[in-house]
Amino acid sequence: MAEPIKVLVTGAAGQIAYSLIYNIAKGDVFGNDQPIILVLLDIAPMMSVLEGVVMEIRDCAFQLVCEIIATDKEEEAFKDIDVAILVGSMPRREGMERKDLLQANAKIFKSQGYSLDKFAKKSVKVLVVGNPANTNCLTAIKCAPSIPKENFSCLTRLDHNRAKAQIAFKLGVPSSDVKNVIIWGNHSSTQYPDVTHATVKVKGKEMSIYDAVKDDNWLKGDFITTVQQRGAAVIKARKLSSAMSAAKAISDHMRTLWFGTAEDEWVSMGVISDGNPYGVPNDLVFSFPVQIKNKTWGIVQCLKISDFSCEKLKVTAKELLEEKETASEFLSSI
């Protein structure tokens, strides 16, 4: 059996982690022959809850979990880790401005970035989930200069999965028959779900989404807004944010990063924008279509971008530039 890998989950006492840890421990993420050292980090007031999570992990008797470390100390949590899944963040509270949220999280991800830089393996793969995920990821990158920028990504696979599911539901096909949707930009209501290059299998025949759906107004209207606002719709219905679907998307993201994409397929992932071919400013964490091989991502090249799509990319890039400026101002003051 392989050597164990050390996997950190932050916000480990929370509802997303409760579903995510099960997926990791069962072998759905890193493979059913990969032993895991689970490292669970949360804040001090949540440690009694985390103790209960640890009890449940032990009671599952997972054959792949060879050690569990539960802590509220970053220096212990980040020590020699192979993977960091940064779920924990300050949630947006009623009456809180987006600027306040950005500032509160800049402090958290500045500290975690420093801990990555100081304690983690330089080969560590970092996934930022806590919102605002793109800008939190950029903050962590800035604060961990000894770790390659390419080792960091943020979660837009949930939006990617939502887009696939909307198309599948519309056409009455399995979501596995929908390929190559794209989420461009920010994990926010400015994101651009794009099916221009996507295909779907209908009655055994693969065709473009536009040809299959035959409703351009829906694809350029309600489809986009439904995906953009899905998180808010879940909160309105559940009175809680997405948890099961978020955990599934994190699992999908990390499994794809670990094992790669098929030759003719891509996934959506928030990555550093430096040198991209789509006119997005450098030094942002921006969601692009990526292909992955040997645990290394590359932005899909040479996709034709329509005027409609170009305008959508500009809107979401503008929001990310504004977020970056707000976070940078606060970081320089602490």
From TrEMBL:
The active site is at H187. Keywords: NAD, Oxidoreductase, Tricarboxylic acid cycle. It comes from the Eukaryota. Residues 156-330 form the Lactate/malate dehydrogenase C-terminal domain. InterPro entries: L-lactate/malate_DH, Lactate/malate_DH_C, Lactate/malate_DH_N, Lactate_DH/Glyco_Ohase_4_C, Malate_DH_AS, Malate_DH_NAD-dep_euk, Malate_DH_type2, NAD(P)-bd_dom_sf. GO terms for molecular function: L-malate dehydrogenase (NAD+) activity. Its EC number is 1.1.1.37. It catalyses: (S)-2-hydroxyglutarate + NAD(+) = 2-oxoglutarate + NADH + H(+); (S)-malate + NAD(+) = oxaloacetate + NADH + H(+). Catalyzes the reduction of aromatic alpha-keto acids in the presence of NADH. Plays essential roles in the malate-aspartate shuttle and the tricarboxylic acid cycle, important in mitochondrial NADH supply for oxidative phosphorylation. Catalyzes the reduction of 2-oxoglutarate to 2-hydroxyglutarate, leading to elevated reactive oxygen species (ROS). NCBIfam families: MalateDH-SF1, MDH_euk_cyt, PRK05442.1. Belongs to the LDH/MDH superfamily. MDH type 2 family. This is Malate dehydrogenase. It comes from Chiloscyllium punctatum.
